[in-house]
Amino acid sequence: MHSNRSRSRPAAQPRAADVTLLESQGLGPQSAGRALPRRTVLRGLGVALALPWLEAHTSPRSAATPTRLWYVYAPNGVDVENWRVPPGPLPAELPPSLRSLEPWRAEVLALRGLTQHSARANGDGPGDHARAAAAWLTGVQPLKSEGQVRLGVSADQVAAEHIGAATRFRSLVVGTQEGRTSGQCDSGYSCAYSNNISWASATTPVPKVVDPLRAFDRLFRGGDDGLSPAERRARLARRESVLDFVRADARALERRLGAEDRQRLDAYEQGLRELERRLAAAARAAEDDYVEAVPDEARPSHGPATFAEHAAFLGDVITLGFQADVARVATMMLGNEGSARRYTEIGVTEGHHPLSHHGRDVEKLAAIQRIDALHVAAVAHAVARLAAVEEAGARLLDHTALVYGACIADGNRHDHHDLPTLLIGGRRVLGAGDPARGGRCLEFPKDTPLNDLHLALLARLGVENVALGDGRGPLDWNG
């Protein structure tokens, strides 16, 4: 996560003034009838909790409702026969890999024909997995050189530079697997390429947060950087809800709100409490598995039991972050490129990467299809969460363009053309009159640069005149 603020830990001691911090923001009883500033927060005991969208935020001079951009990346390619759909309206029955998106078919725009040329060898030999992750959002072919890293700024960070200054965090960068930034992971390419899709500069990937509990704490509890494992366990044992710290401010705010806003605030608080409860339960389960003889510094971070649970937690944290407007840009890696994760929860005991080299083996293809479906189900969960949040007369999903895809099509061939790509939601981002609406598949000419999609989304966010790899200009939805 990129923060615009210092990472210093907040003061731990309560202040008497905490109970009147709303007044310190100019929001005391004398302000009744005035619109709330969008950046109003609830404070208490060192916690600053942003608010969801409320009608009380609106006024004739209110700024436009913010738009968001969320990229989700899947590694190792897909089973293309159970993924792709023909151009035109989506078929009555979605292919098996996409079936969990059925409730949201009207929000789904499948894109065909997009290519990431910089993920191809182009004279550099093997290393397709490293190039795929590195080039997906940057459009730049990574440098293949021992001990050196050279790439480019990724599209999400271009967006974050433009729209992230208004929020506490420029962007949220998460993933389900830790990743090294040194050493070689793929045919002479640095591990930094395989393990990151978000890049702040040509030499600096944006570190991704893997522990959902830590991601939540950074967004809503002021972070816990610098705590030892023992301190983290002690904190977990006495864990209180973030809402307990801001109770006085919350009650004062409720007295200023109408009935519908009170319901919105209550729903937001319930969402926070429920996610806290689930995260704490998962953390306690992980604690139960610890062996006391293992030294604290060697103990693993708290981790959910399954991939599905892990991805759902991370998706929920991002959704709450968008809802509270502490960030407007997010990237999420469902796995590192070349990952050999075993998805035992769905009966897949062979590693993902070895399976992707299926050689048309029927059983291996069936396992790949189940993995694809599991990945898409994680996206469907996030879409459902976004759709459940009301914001400014629409849904948070309408204000969020979610791109789901991979930079390898068939994992056996390491194809980087006709990439599996979905654009979901974002009706308010694309524009009400834009023909790029859901429920259909658009096919573009062969080898249309994937970077044109990134440029189109950046343009919808107000970012113009950006160079991105072989991008020619914003994707023409009427092409």
Verbal overview:
This protein is α/β, with parallel strands linked by helices and 479 residues long. It has two domains: 70-211 and 313-479, Alkaline Phosphatase, subunit A, CATH 3.40.720; 220-302, no CATH class. It is 32% helix and 14% strand. It contains 14 helices and 15 strands. The longest helix has 30 residues, at 259-288.
Query: Which geometry do the CA atoms define?
Result: globular
Please trace the helix and strand order, writing H or E for each element: EHEEEEEHHEEEHHHHHHHEHHEEEEHEH
Secondary-structure class: alpha/beta
Q: Please, how many domains? A: 2
Main beta sheet strand tally, sense and closure: 9 strands, mixed
Q: What topology, given as strand order, has the largest sheet?
A: 1-7-10-4-13-14-6-15-5
Broad CATH class of the largest domain: Alpha Beta
Question: Can you give the helix content as a percent range?
Answer: 25-40%
CATH architecture of the largest domain: 3-Layer(aba) Sandwich
β-strand amount: 5-15%
If you consult CATH, what is the topology of the largest domain?
Alkaline Phosphatase, subunit A
What is the terminal separation in angstroms?
36 Å
Radius of gyration (Å): 22 Å
